[in-house]
Amino acid sequence: MKNKLLTSLLLKLEIASVIFLLFFAETVVVPDAVRTLTNILSYGIVILLVSVQWKRIAYVATTDKTLILLTIIGVFSVFWSYSLGDTVEQVRALVRSTIFGLYLASRYTPREQINLLSWVGIISIFLCTIVGFAVPSVGTHVVNGVVSWRGIYAHKQHMGRFMGFLASIFLINILDKRCNRWFAFILLLVSLILLVLSNSKTGLIVFLYPIFAFPIYIIVKQRKNRFFILLLAVLIFTIISALILVNLESIVVNYLGKDIEFNGRIPLWVSTIQEGLKRPFLGYGYNAFWTSDASYDVIRNTWLRYEDIDPDSPFQAHNGFIDLFVQLGFLGLSLFVFHLLTVIYRVVNILFMTRKIETFWMFMFLGINVLVNTSEVITFMSTNSVFWIIYVSIAFSSAVEYKQIKRVQLISSLNQA
């Protein structure tokens, strides 16, 4: 009896530790002393969790060598970094985040990972609501003359992005018969309200993405004429995309409240790429571009010159692909794009073979991650975003499951022979 109680207690402590790490993976605003403490604790917790599951983790790591190679390139960029101190400091956090994502894939199924993220979402929604109403001086800030909610996060875009992401989690719970659908629906509505209060246009797009992507899951579940239905859906999607592109200027200016240069993003992207082409193959080193003098010309020639940039919180190009390029050059960017396409291919195949709702969530997340990185902060290989941890977990989870499916198919074909 004592052994069962001890085992149960350790299991609950493990789950609490994982939720703690996922929650603080985002840019939560806390006093500096608390931030330092949570950072130290996070390293200790990850080491402890990995030490218990190291054999399983070692096996899972072999299922996706490309991602391991990409992380190694990030680590070895200390040898050509333009800002060695910043690279060394952030590389440690990169390894921690990547290993933690690997641990999640080794320890929990995709459905269990969704449950863990649901708890993180509940805690986030509760605290953002409390802080926003009770301490508006902390939970809100003025951006472009408009009061916007940021809750417990550093910026309205961070809260908006995370609330938009939670839509994919709660939507899956609404569709899953094993979950409390009404509770998930209420959480979805509250996250939408917080998203609206944040005035984050990007967050709203991220919120709508899983809702509009839902018909894809209906198509996947159809056993008969699935290819024809999918072809029809792709055709409709292409027509809608063409209409959006034709009317892009009107949509951007009138509905998203941005100019055709996306609030100065395009000049920023062009200037950043030009600087990146000065070191095209290996880049400036992981997390080294915006913390060094290399970014001076970009800041001087774009709207960044009007910003009060905190050296302890470096800026970024508002595009994950471009930021990855200036950090790790064509080598890192091409390897990541190859890996991203590989993971998408793997997840889509698993989705059609299993038709599991959790696999559909993995598919949705990959789309959300690309969407966020197209015009917002970088989450690719980022040490201050839960998105990289989830991406790593999905990459390894899908690799393990795909390998198992192929093994079963091989055994079945041999038995039939």
UniProtKB/TrEMBL annotation:
Keywords: Membrane, Transmembrane, Transmembrane helix. Its main location: membrane. InterPro entries: O-antigen_ligase-rel_domated, WaaL-like. It comes from the Bacteria. Pfam families: Wzy_C (PF04932). The chain crosses the membrane at residues 9-30, 36-54, 66-85, 116-138, 158-175, 182-198, 204-220, 227-248, 324-348, 360-380, 386-402. It is found in: Membrane. This is O-antigen polymerase. GO terms for cellular component: membrane. The lineage of its organism: Bacteria, Bacillati, Cyanobacteriota, Cyanophyceae, Nostocales. It is a multi-pass membrane protein. It comes from Fischerella thermalis JSC-11. Residues 187-337 form the O-antigen ligase-related domain.
